[in-house]
UniProtKB/TrEMBL annotation, chain A:
Coiled coil regions, renumbered to chain: none
Organism of provenance: Phanerochaete sordida
Claim: Transport is one of the keywords in the record: no
Biological role: Catalytic subunit of the dimeric E1 enzyme, which activates NEDD8.
Protein name per the record: NEDD8-activating enzyme E1 catalytic subunit
Lineage: Eukaryota, Fungi, Dikarya, Basidiomycota, Agaricomycotina
One CC-aspect GO term: cytoplasm
Automatic annotation (TrEMBL), chain B:
Pathway: Protein modification; protein neddylation
Protein name (record): NEDD8-conjugating enzyme UBC12
Record-annotated UBC core domain positions: 23-167
Catalytic reactions of this protein: [E1 NEDD8-activating enzyme]-S-[NEDD8 protein]-yl-L-cysteine + [E2 NEDD8-conjugating enzyme]-L-cysteine = [E1 NEDD8-activating enzyme]-L-cysteine + [E2 NEDD8-conjugating enzyme]-S-[NEDD8-protein]-yl-L-cysteine
Record-linked CDD domains: UBCc_UBE2F_UBE2M
Keywords: ATP-binding, Nucleotide-binding, Transferase, Ubl conjugation pathway
Top-level EC class: transferase
A Pfam family annotated for this UniProt entry: UQ_con
Active-site residues, Swiss-Prot/TrEMBL: 105 (glycyl thioester intermediate)
Stored PANTHER family: UBIQUITIN-CONJUGATING ENZYME E2
Any one GO molecular function term: ATP binding
UniProt source species: Phanerochaete sordida
Family: Belongs to the ubiquitin-conjugating enzyme family.
Amino acid sequence: MAAAVATNGAAVAADWPGRYHHIDQVLDTPGPRTDPSFQAGDEVKEFLRDKCKILVIGAGGLGCEILANLALSGFKDIHVIDMDTIDISNLNRQFLFRSKDVGKPKALVAAESIMTRVPGVKITPYYGKIQDKDEDYYMQFNLVICGLDSVEARRWINATLVNMVDPENPESLKPLIDGGTEGFKGQARVILPTISSCYECSLDMLNKPTAFPICTIANTPRLPEHCIEWASVLEWPRVHGDKKMDTDDPEHIGWLYKTALARAKEFNIEGVTYSLTQGVVKNIIPAIASTNAIIAASCCNEAFKIATSSAAYLNNYFMLIGTDGVYSFTFEHEKRPECPVCGGEAVDLTISKGMTVDKLIETLVERQDIQIKKPSLSSPTKQIYFQAPPQLEEATRPNLEKPVSELVEEGGEITVTATSLPFSLSLRIHYT
Amino acid sequence: MIKIWSMKKNEDAAAKKRPKTSAAQIRVQKDLTELDLPSTMKTVFPDPADLLNFTLTITPDEGMYKGGCFNFSFQINNNYPHEPPKVKCTQKIYHPNVDLEGNVCLNILREDWKPVLNLNSVMVGLQYLFLEPNADDPLNKEAAEELRKNRDQFLYNVKASMRGGAIKGVQYDRVAV
């Protein structure tokens, strides 16, 4: 082991004999459940080790595990994105980081850490937000694995990958493997954009964050959490005005703690502590290292199976509940037809260059297969015509006279909403 | 790499490329264009191209707050409708369920928000607060106390505050039309 680490400084070009002995057992022979397209032997190994490019989003609790697992199972071209820096509280489970790394970007340290330990693996880090990158960037990968802690970031990457699917280009479909943990619970899922249920389809499965009635917070606090919410929701804006609260700033948390503590004293409530304050305002649920390890292992197992077709992959949702014993359940989450991201109908519509917006609306209302009344139209960048509210109707009314071609380019999209539509309808406009 | 594309061929209906408009944007478009507001409520968009930030004006035509004109700012983020819109009263008003900073106590804006609710339900909920101020869930405790103990005095205070008067040392904004 020591020798392997020592030789690593210089890039080790060739793999030493037996490096992938265990993994090759799987890749050298097809099994009873392998996909018919599986090419046992060199071809699949070459793809995994030389061609496959994988993106890991998040280099935190799940990300550290994912990066280590991927590197050790033979993925060699790995990219990682994370917008966070290392906090001292991460060190108990985010094992790629050491005390000296506190304050440094997670993506950079994680990449460096893996590369010094696993010879021949190239990890390209990006310290920043996933939203900084465009479709061209995401298009370069074969697979995307997410170990995120935010619903917003998941929704963004999910919508981006679904939108990227181009019917003319098979390469545009990137499988998304999403892992998530919350205390002793976790889930891993495989999303094939536009083919299987996407993240947005299952949004209603989320627990809603605990919110206390604002009147309770203001008048009849009974819990330490009520005092903390009072300090952050009501007192902070009152005292600090428009200054934004930064939940990562120890001074801000300190102020909230002091304020909440004073309030708790006034109402004889026990239990307001600094860490509870931080927990409540940041909505922290304790992270459990072993949950992360299980979920990350499951995600990487799926990535390996999808990249190699060596075994059937997860279809499509695996959940783990470790609160009472170890329980897991796997099921197929179904696509939601009215899903705003992957569902709904998209209709191709060919019209003449001179057709006005007014006429287009008339055509839509008349069409038997659409059946809508009073549609409102917009393109991704602007409003075309809104039926209500009055101010927007008035503002968009002049567009009724204009030809559609002045507002929407060839192949452009129009989003149509109407009362009778459960969600929305998307039109792709072509001109004769 | 597994051949995913072959599965796709069988699902041509779903194969259409979806628009770039965000889910929140589409939902806000749907909510706004289907608003069914009585003549007592009006939306104002400082920037008509920005659907996510606007003001709602309520001018109650009955009840204790008749004759006033109340403004609420709406801020919608990209997590809508997973998260409720942020609503604040932009004036300092004397109301049991609105504090002096403009925070509003309306259950569907916080603990009872659900994505099936929409902007119309929030707006109707806000108007209801002016028709039936609720002394049981106070944010302005003194106003609530007054409403509970002495309705006539409360009504007098409401009228005085709407004219821009001071009550118990607090100066209120003039909101009378």
